[in-house]
Every structure is written in structure tokens, then in C-alpha cells.
């Protein structure tokens, strides 16, 4: 990312490239006043530290302007009276101090794309360039600007590298721009003393222009159909060219070669560069470049995308022009001087394709040469081609419907998807005997492991070029292994629990019945001990892999408490084609006990191949069954009515009561008693005396009636009762307060009707 400072400075430089109607006057900050226009007046206003001279035509720049106050557009007119209607604008800019550039110490590197300035005051100095690439008439001129942001020293003589586009010609027009200033035909630049700067003095003439890329772009000359030519990268930098007995003439983008004495000759080319242009060879700068050129009789082309670097035992493909009459198999082929073998030859109308098997190269370019023989050494064809880095294959494995996996399955095939930028080529998965096999089904590539589980294998791919003729398009140019290894193991796919596990109980006739999951079932009480869980390991298919499941069996009583002796929890590891296993429900169950069987897969991503997109959960199943029982329950409970109301005369409140009550209640299908039941028992009434006129003595009573109970926990309930009671008590007395006219004995019957809320604890009884 470009630094923010560079963006700000470049924004000011880009304004110079725009076609502006207003002229520009720029002067260093703190400099002397300069004339904005030869005749007329500046209408103003003048702001941001600028000041207007007495003559009305000159301005004085600010001494230390802010970056946002350097540029100002001033309205000008021929007379002050015309200021209101004038539309003329003059732009004034307060630049930074003008630099002093040492042109002799400045170096231009067109191939590397940089200009190394040397001078004083280089910070924020801009550089503008304009150059036409040689030999490319269709390309427009390369123009642009950049700025020096990081001089080697803040003060004094310093160096600064300014980036420029690669590929500029050596005679590119280079100009320096004052800091924060502009360049262009409508721009006038003044120095700090107010003197006009000659635009030609802004031109940069580097002391050295250094070429770093090869100047001669071929090492052969094709003279089979007339005068040959040698392409060069910078024809404008060549002053003279000498080819010995042959005739060489520099031209636009190439050197023309004529009068070559025979196709079996070699030509030594000596190119002398123009003054101040050098070719860098290691640490040596040369002005004379010497190259030996082979005379080519057969045009040779390296097929694009087939010349790779960084690949051992790789192949490349070249195409000989149809004019070449040589049989490629009889020629001696070399790549960078090393002999290679011809593996395949395909002749077509457009030429002859030759597949050459090499040992690989790490060079940026290769020279492919065909000779008649090692002894004769006659060059029949030659080509220099740039090498492409070997693409990196990236493959992903996927189990259809289950998502991506990071291993090679041994029990089922996985789909292979390629995700690599192979350029013109493509990668094809190759089988590796003993490790994995590869099949193709409806244009889908499938892989299945063969190695022992636990082994690690890197996938092997063949690099192919579909643009080659059909006979070569299916040939692997190079074999490439993945940069990492994958483990080989089973792919465990979670199987449906209903297919593996059954819950079986006998019916009333003693015959086994398979209970369906997720549905309530009823088990005859006499068959309660026939229930069992059957694990069918023989139904597990090899392609499903090993399974790990968790079995839970729990039995709860009608009151919700757990029957601990009947609980089972087992973690089972199931292998395909195993034997059947029966697991009975332990313990002696009672009426209306609820049996719950839960079976689920153990959530282990290291074992199961789980989908990365569809996380709906692992398969699981649950069975529920209730042991049948009687229609009624008769039981005894301790009742504690806090307060009972005696509805029979004399009426009153009986506080703190306690007794034992037997209750007969109707049961529902799940063994839970209905709210209303018949109750009878012994009850202690009025155990705490109450304040009031009527004094009920504590008494023991036989009660019979109806009770409403709501369970609040195991063996506990709250309710309300309405009882008919016979009381074993003495007389009920009245407080007379010493009044002799009042009888202290209250007439009352031993039979009474009482009702009120109570809390009951305990449930000892049996079902009927």
C-alpha cells in the first residue's frame, strides 16, 4: 500500500498532468515577490499567508505555509473595474526550496524501474517522465510522475531513489519538479530571488544510464527465408553494431543481419552503446556488448506453458516450423547445453511438436538447441524461452453429502477437487500403487486408499497442457507431489441408529415385538423383565466404517424418582460385520415404571466424516415404554391439615391437626393418580387451643370423605379435604366471662362435617 505522504504529494503532481485553463506561477516559500501577470491587476483576495505587492500584479509567497495553503487561485483582470466580471484565473503555488541536483551523480535504471537522484534538498522533489517504448508502435507514450520521499540524509548531499515504470527507453525525457510544484507548458517557475527558471534547466540528464536486463534477446539468427534479425531491448541505446564478415545495422527494436556466410556459421555481434549508457555485468559496467549468435535454419518455438522451472524430470514441448525438413529424432537436442531425449513426436499441418524430457532447471530462461550431431555441431534450430514457476497443486477431498475431509479413506471413495492456479495447464491426480487408487466416474475424480491405516501419503499429480495436440494433451509433463501428507484411514460415516439398534419386549402372549423409536409403548406387567436392547453389528457396512455409540437405559418410577438398579450407560465401539449383542434392562420393575432407551453417536470429528456446512447433529434414537398396572391405588399417607373448619354447630376453626389417612384413587394410563379420591382414617383435631368464645377440646376422630391431592414431589402432595367425622371428645365449652346466666357447656353432636387444606407426606400402598 502506498504511504499516505506519497499519496498527498502525488495528488499535487497529478494536477500538473490535467489540462487546466489557468496559467500557473510557482515560487519557493519565503522567496521574493514575483509578477503574476505582465499587465493588469490581481483582483484578490489573497489569503493563507500570501500578500499582494504594491503594483497590484506581484505576490509575495508565505514563509512557512501549510500543505493545504500552498496553492491559491487568484482572479485577475485588465483593470480593477473589470474584476467583478472577469473570469481569468492565475494559480500561484508556494513550492518547497528548489533542490540542487548533481546530474553527474544521478543514475537511471530503466530495466529496474528507478531513478537514483543525487543532490541537496531532495525531499518531496518530483520527477516527471515521458518516453516511447521502442519497437512497440501500438503502445502509447509512457508518461507519469513520482516523488522523492526518503533521501538518504535529511541535509546536505544525499541520494534518493524514485520509482519509474519498467521498460522506459534510455532516452526518456526526465524533468525534476520543485517540492509541491507542478510541471507543464503553462507553468512558470521562479527561484527564491525571483528569477524566472528556464524550463530546460529542469531537465534531468543522468550521468549514467545502466541496463541490467539482457540487451540481445536471442542467441540465433533465422536466415532461412531472407535477412535475419536479432531482437534487442533498447535499440535506441546502440550506437554501432559490428558482426565481423556479416553486415549488421541497428533498427527500431532489432539489429538487422545480412550477408551471413552460410547457415552453419556463427556470428559474433559487438554492440557499442551510446555515451553515458552502460550494461551492468555483475560489478562491471560495459559499453561494448559481445554476443555469439547461431544461424538458425529451422524456426523453433517453445509451446507456452510447457517450459517450467523448479521441476525435476520435467518435459517441455517445442514446435518446429513445417519448412524444417529434419526428423526431430535424428537431431541432438540440448537445453542450456545439457543433452535431453526425444520422448514423443507429433506431426501436424501447423508444424512438428516434439516432447523433450529434461532433468529440470532452476534458471529464469532456457536455451533449446537442435544440432545435426555432437561432432558436426551444426545448429539446426534454437530458441530462448522464459521459464514459468511450477504451479502448486491444491486439492480438497470430499465425501459426497458429508463435506470436506482431510484424509484418504480406505473403505469408500472420496471426490477430489482441484483448486490451484496452474495457468495454461491443469493438474490430474495420478494413482500411486500401494498407497491409493484413482478412478473417474462421470468426469468426477475419485480416490480410495490402499495403504495400511495410519500411513501418511502425499497425493501425486501430473501436470498437463490441454492446448497441446490430442496425442500430447494427455501426457504428464511433470509429476508433482503435494507439499504435505495425508493420513490413510477409514472414513466413519454415522449410520442410522434405527438400522443398528432395536428395543425388543414381549407382548402379553410372550412373543417378542420390536418397538419403534419416538413412539410411546406399553409393556404388560408380567412381561416387564423381557425387555432388552439388541445391537446388530452385522448390519454395519464396511463403507460406513467403525462406529462409536453411547447407550443409556434409565427407569423412572411413577412418582418421578429414578430406579437406580435399572440404569445402564455404555460406550460401545462397533466394527462392521460384527456379532449381534443383547443387553437386557436390569432390575425388577414395578407397575407404571417408565423405561427410556437412548442411543446416540459420540460426537468425535477425528473419527467421523462430518459435513462442514450441514451441522444438523449426529443420528440418534430414543425408545419409551411404560409397564402397565392396576386401575386404582390404595395407599396410606400422613396428613397434616394446618387448619380445618368445623361446619357443624357449633362451627369454628380447628388449628394444628395431624393424622393417618388411607386413600383410594383412580390411576391414569401412566400410573398417576387422579386428583379426587376417597379417604378414611384417624385424625387428631384441634391439637392447639384457639382463642375465642367456643373452646374445642383436642380430640381423636374417625374421618371419611373425599380428598383432592396435587403432587408436589416424590411422596408429597398438597390438597383439600371434605370429611364426615366422628369425634372421641368431651364437651365443648364456652367462655362465660363470669356471667352466671350463661351455660358453659355448648350442646353439640359427636358427628361433624369438616373441610380444609392439608399437606400429606408418604405413599405406602399398592395398586388394584
Q: How would you characterize this protein structure?
A:
The chain has seven domains: 24-95; 100-211; 220-296; 300-389, Immunoglobulin-like; 395-489, no CATH class; 497-627, Sandwich (Immunoglobulin-like); 632-767, no CATH class. It has three helices and 65 strands. Strands 8, 9, 10, 13, 16, 23 and 24 form a seven-stranded mixed beta sheet that branches. 3% of the residues lie in helices and 48% in strands. By secondary structure, it is mostly beta strands. Residues 1-21 form the signal peptide. This is Lipoprotein.
Question: Beta-strand percentage?
Answer: over 45%
Q: In terms of structural class, how would the helical and strand content be classed?
A: mainly beta
Mean pLDDT: 86
Can you give the helix content as a percent range? under 10%
Our count of helices gives 3
Overall number of strands: 65
End-to-end gap: 88 Å
Low-confidence stretches: 4-20
The biggest beta sheet is recorded as: 7 strands, mixed
Radius of gyration: 52 Å
Task: List the domain count as a whole number.
Answer: 7
**Net shape:** elongated
Biased composition (Basic and acidic residues): 63-74
Signal peptide: 1-21
Organism: Myxococcus xanthus (strain DK1622)
Protein name: Lipoprotein
Amino acid at each position: 500500500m502506498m504511504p499516505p505522504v506519497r499519496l498527498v504529494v502525488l495528488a499535487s503532481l497529478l494536477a500538473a498532468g490535467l489540462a487546466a485553463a489557468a496559467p500557473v506561477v510557482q515560487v519557493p516559500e519565503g522567496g521574493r515577490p514575483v509578477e503574476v501577470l505582465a499587465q493588469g491587476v490581481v483582483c484578490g483576495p489573497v489569503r493563507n499567508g500570501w500578500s499582494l505587492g504594491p503594483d497590484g500584479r506581484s505576490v509575495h509567497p508565505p514563509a512557512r505555509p501549510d500543505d493545504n495553503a500552498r496553492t491559491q487561485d487568484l482572479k485577475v483582470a485588465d483593470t480593477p473595474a473589470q474584476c467583478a466580471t472577469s473570469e481569468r484565473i492565475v494559480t500561484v503555488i508556494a513550492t518547497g526550496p528548489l533542490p540542487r541536483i548533481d546530474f553527474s551523480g544521478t543514475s537511471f535504471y530503466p530495466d529496474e524501474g528507478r531513478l537514483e537522484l543525487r543532490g541537496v534538498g531532495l525531499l518531496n522533489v518530483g520527477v516527471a517522465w515521458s518516453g516511447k517504448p521502442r519497437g512497440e508502435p501500438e503502445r502509447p507514450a509512457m508518461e507519469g510522475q513520482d516523488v522523492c520521499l526518503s533521501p538518504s540524509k535529511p541535509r546536505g548531499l544525499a541520494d534518493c531513489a524514485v520509482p519509474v515504470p519498467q521498460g522506459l527507453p534510455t532516452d526518456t525525457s526526465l524533468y525534476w519538479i520543485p517540492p509541491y510544484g507542478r510541471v507543464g507548458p503553462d507553468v512558470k517557475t521562479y527561484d527564491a530571488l525571483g528569477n524566472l527558471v528556464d524550463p530546460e534547466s529542469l531537465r534531468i540528464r543522468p550521468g549514467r544510464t545502466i541496463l541490467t536486463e539482457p540487451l540481445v534477446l536471442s542467441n540465433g539468427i533465422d536466415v532461412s527465408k531472407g535477412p535475419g534479425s536479432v531482437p534487442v531491448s533498447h535499440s535506441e541505446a546502440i550506437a554501432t553494431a559490428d558482426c565481423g564478415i556479416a553486415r549488421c545495422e541497428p533498427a527500431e527494436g532489432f539489429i538487422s543481419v545480412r550477408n551471413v556466410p552460410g547457415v552453419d556459421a556463427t556470428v559474433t555481434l559487438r554492440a557499442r552503446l551510446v555515451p553515458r549508457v552502460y550494461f551492468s555485468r555483475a560489478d562491471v559496467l560495459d559499453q561494448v556488448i559481445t554476443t555469439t549468435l547461431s544461424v538458425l535454419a529451422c524456426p523453433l518455438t517453445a509451446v507456452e506453458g510447457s517450459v517450467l522451472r523448479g521441476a525435476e524430470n520435467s518435459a517441455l514441448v517445442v514446435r518446429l516450423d513445417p519448412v524444417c525438413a529434419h526428423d526431430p529424432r535424428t537431431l541432438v537436442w540440448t537445453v542450456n547445453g545439457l543433452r535431453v531425449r526425444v520422448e514423443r513426436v507429433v506431426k501436424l499441418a501447423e508444424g512438428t511438436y516434439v516432447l523433450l524430457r529434461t532433468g529440470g532447471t532452476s534458471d529464469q530462461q532456457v536455451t533449446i538447441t537442435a544440432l545435426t550431431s555432437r561432432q558436426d555441431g551444426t545448429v539446426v534450430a534454437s530458441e530462448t524461452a522464459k521459464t514459468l514457476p511450477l504451479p502448486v497443486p491444491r486439492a480438497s477431498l470430499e465425501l459426497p453429502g458429508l463435506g470436506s475431509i482431510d484424509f484418504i479413506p480406505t473403505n469408500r471413495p472420496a471426490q477430489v477437487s482441484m483448486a490451484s492456479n496452474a495457468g495454461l495447464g491443469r493438474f490430474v491426480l495420478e494413482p500411486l500403487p500401494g498407497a491409493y487408487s484413482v478412478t473417474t466416474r462421470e468426469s468426477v475424480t475419485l480416490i480410495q486408499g490402499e495403504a495400511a491405516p495410519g500411513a501418511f501419503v502425499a497425493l501425486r499429480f501430473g501436470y498437463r497442457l490441454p492446448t497441446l495436440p490430442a496425442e500430447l494433451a494427455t501426457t504428464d509433463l511433470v509429476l508433482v507431489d503435494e507439499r504435505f501428507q495425508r493420513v490413510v484411514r477409514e472414513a466413519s460415516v454415522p449410520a442410522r441408529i434405527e438400522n443398528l439398534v432395536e428395543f425388543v419386549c414381549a407382548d402379553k402372549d410372550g412373543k417378542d415385538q420390536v418397538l419403534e423409536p419416538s413412539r410411546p409403548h406399553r409393556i404388560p406387567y408380567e412381561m416387564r423383565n423381557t425387555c432388552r436392547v439388541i445391537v446388530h453389528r452385522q448390519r454395519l457396512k464396511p463403507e460406513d466404517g467403525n462406529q462409536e455409540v453411547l447407550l443409556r437405559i434409565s427407569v423412572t418410577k411413577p412418582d418421578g424418582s429414578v430406579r437406580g438398579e435399572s440404569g445402564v450407560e455404555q460406550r460401545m465401539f462397533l466394527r462392521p460385520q460384527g456379532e449381534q449383542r443383547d443387553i437386557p434392562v436390569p432390575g425388577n420393575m414395578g407397575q407404571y415404571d417408565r423405561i427410556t432407551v437412548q442411543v446416540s453417536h459420540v460426537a468425535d470429528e477425528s473419527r467421523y466424516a462430518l459435513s462442514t456446512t450441514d451441522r444438523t447433529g449426529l443420528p440418534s434414537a430414543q425408545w419409551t415404554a411404560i409397564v402397565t398396572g392396576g386401575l386404582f391405588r390404595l395407599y396410606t399417607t400422613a396428613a397434616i391439615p394446618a387448619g380445618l373448619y368445623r361446619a357443624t354447630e357449633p362451627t369454628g376453626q380447628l388449628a394444628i391437626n395431624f393424622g393417618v389417612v388411607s386413600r383410594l384413587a383412580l390411576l391414569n394410563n401412566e400410573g398417576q393418580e387422579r386428583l379426587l379420591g376417597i379417604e378414611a382414617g384417624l385424625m387428631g383435631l384441634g391439637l392447639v387451643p384457639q382463642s375465642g368464645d367456643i373452646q374445642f377440646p383436642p380430640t381423636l376422630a374417625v374421618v371419611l370423605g373425599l380428598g383432592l391431592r396435587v403432587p408436589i414431589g416424590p411422596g408429597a402432595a398438597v390438597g383439600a379435604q371434605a370429611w364426615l367425622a366422628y369425634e372421641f371428645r368431651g364437651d365443648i365449652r364456652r367462655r362465660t366471662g363470669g356471667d352466671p346466666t350463661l351455660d358453659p357447656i355448648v350442646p353439640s353432636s359427636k358427628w361433624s362435617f369438616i373441610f380444609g387444606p392439608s399437606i400429606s407426606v408418604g405413599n405406602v400402598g399398592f395398586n388394584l
